[in-house]
Design a protein that fits this description.
0% of the residues lie in helices and 49% in strands. The protein is an all-beta fold. It starts with 16 loop residues before the first strand and ends with a strand.
Length: 191
């Protein structure tokens, strides 16, 4: 991706970071055992501190995590959005592969655009005119009950933990190509 985490701590109405017409075709691969919650994205791992505008960006690369962690946040554009400030993702596309494997003792939240959206402040995030045409795949997980909330996968956003998220005119998949926007979850082999 382009950045792990911007930290300009801009708290006014102007955007402190702008991504415009950016393309990522490279692979972002993270593996290993982590006691924390890794956040991995095609453009940005995590946003906790800045006012950001992303316009007309595309991730066609492969973003993968394999290993163990508390919770893995994996997104085609951004892994985790928890900023206290305004964040706008407009006309962005994930057309690559987003894949999380071997998270046996962990949890995972995957989304074609944003893996996890988790804010508890008065700032909003807007995701508009975005498309997930890529693959979002969670593999090698334990079989868990629906109420566990450990493994959450979505075409646009994986996990939403607040009502300040606006999703407008976004599309997962293609009406003419069933291979676009595929979201899959597979359990770990027994034994």
């Amino acid at each position: 991706g382009f950045t792990g985490e911007p930290y300009l701590n801009n708290n006014n109405d102007k955007y402190s970071v702008e991504f415009t017409n950016c393309k990522n075709s490279g692979n972002v691969t993270v593996s290993g055992t982590y006691s924390s919650n890794p956040s991995i994205g095609g453009f940005m791992g995590i946003n906790n501190y800045d006012t950001i505008l992303m316009t007309s960006c595309e991730n066609s690369g492969t973003v993968t995590f394999s290993g163990k962690a508390g919770y893995v946040h994996l997104g085609g554009v951004i892994g985790y959005d928890g900023t206290n400030f305004k964040f706008v993702v407009d006309n962005c596309v994930h057309s690559g592969v987003l894949k999380c494997t071997s998270v046996m003792d962990s949890g995972a939240r995957l989304g074609g655009i944003i893996g996890t959206y988790n804010k508890d402040h008065a700032a909003s995030t807007t995701v508009k005119n975005c498309k997930n045409l890529g693959t979002v795949a969670l593999e090698g997980v334990q079989t868990v009950s629906e109420t566990n909330y450990r493994y959450i996968v979505g075409g646009i956003v994986g996990y939403i933990a607040d009502t300040l998220l606006s999703i407008e005119d976004c599309v997962n998949g293609s009406a003419t190509d069933a291979t676009k926007g595929v979201v899959t979850v597979g359990t770990a082999p027994s034994g």
